[in-house]
Amino acid sequence: MAKKLGFFSRLKSAFTRQKDSVVDISDEVIEAIEAQLKQNPNNFRLRLKLADSYLTRGERENALEEYCKSARLYIENDFTPLAIATYKKILNEDPSHLEANLELGRIYQQKKFYADATTYLHKAFDYYHTNDLNNKALKVLETILEIAPDKEPYKLIIKEIFPEHQENAKSIYSDIIITKPDGTTESEPTPENRTADDSFFDLGAELGIEIDDIGDDSTIDSGEPNATEKGEPHGVEEIFQTLKSTYQDDTNDSDTDKFHYNLAMAYNELKMPEQALQESEESLKSNNFRLPTLLLRSRIFMSQGSLSTALSQVQQGLLEKGLTMQDFLTFKMQLGLILKEMGHIPQALEAFREAHSLDPENQELANEIEILGNSI
């Protein structure tokens, strides 16, 4: 049985995966992952690992197919930010990918980010129009007309391409329909039939209840499938579980703040650090998410080797008002890690000692202090 990681190890490892070097993926590894997926097709971690492996090997079509399957699993299990990040990763490889553009348009429409929804739906329209799928192209345009902040360009497109169209009439496609792998279809929920499941959720709160159940997943991260893995989100739950103790959820948090923060976390997990940093600029403006966002940004910059910038994020966090003891502990631990990486051993030792004074039973901190103390 794998040894269970303590809090300090989880905190250190949660954001370090993107530092792993690219390895040559053998046929045996691919076959082993595929064999496990046949037994458990809903394993989030394995399916994304397979997609990443295909992409590393240059098998682009297979990779995109597996990324789509991963995104659908995230949607089915209400992990919307991870689905968004996965679909955007698909668009990095294929900007005209139909499913990715339609699903992103649908999701952003649900979240009332109408400008973003319009952008992706316009790409879906271009695909349909280019491939002479006129009824579907018209339906997408009708949806865009309902939500676009600037409707005039799309009215002109309809008049030019569909001169017989009446503005109050509906095309024969009453909804944008995406066929699922099992052959069934799913229509876009309307405001009237939308359920609580379609509303925004707090991914951190959903995943944080399992903080004591984190195991050692180093086997799968090294490219070798772990036969004991269950069907759970790959890795991002570890990040949220580690960060959950740094702040208390506020029931008055706006959906927009949660959306930007969760999406930044998802981008980082999907190894899209630049997008994560860009999205985190929005959550930095939120009083409720500023502290965890600063910690997230610090870890991203640290993983990129930008240690001075990572240090500045932690220093800003330590200057914030209303820090709880747990906040202070978490930021001091991060400070120690950065200073250690920079080679400032005495300062790192001081930071670890301050953290240990708040958590004297933390044996891992004690070991870190002993190791650094002996190195001076």
In a few lines, what is going on in this structure?
The protein is mainly α and 376 residues long.
What does this protein look like?
This protein starts with 6 loop residues before the first helix and ends with a helix. The chain has a two-stranded antiparallel sheet with strand order 1-2. Helix 2 runs antiparallel to helix 3 (44-56), helix 5 crosses helix 13 (255-269) and helix 7 (114-130) packs antiparallel against helix 8. 62% of the residues lie in helices and 2% in strands. It is mainly alpha-helical. The protein has 19 helices and 2 strands. It has 3 domains: 22-94, Tetratricopeptide repeat domain (Serine Threonine Protein Phosphatase 5, Tetratricopeptide repeat, Alpha Horseshoe); 114-187, no CATH class; 237-375, Tetratricopeptide repeat domain (Serine Threonine Protein Phosphatase 5, Tetratricopeptide repeat), CATH 1.25.40. Mean pLDDT is 76; it is low at 1-5, 10-22 and 170-253. Strand 1 (177-179) and strand 2 form a beta hairpin.
Write the layout of secondary structure elements.
Elements: H1 7-13, H2 27-39, H3 44-56, H4 60-76, H5 80-93, H6 98-110, H7 114-130, H8 134-147, H9 152-161, E1 177-179, E2 185-187, H10 203-207, H11 218-221, H12 236-244, H13 255-269, H14 273-283, H15 290-303, H16 307-319, H17 325-342, H18 345-358, H19 363-375
Antiparallel strand pairs: 1-2
Helix pairs in contact: 2-3, 3-4, 4-5, 5-6, 5-13, 6-7, 7-8, 8-9, 13-14, 14-15, 15-16, 15-17, 16-17, 17-18, 18-19
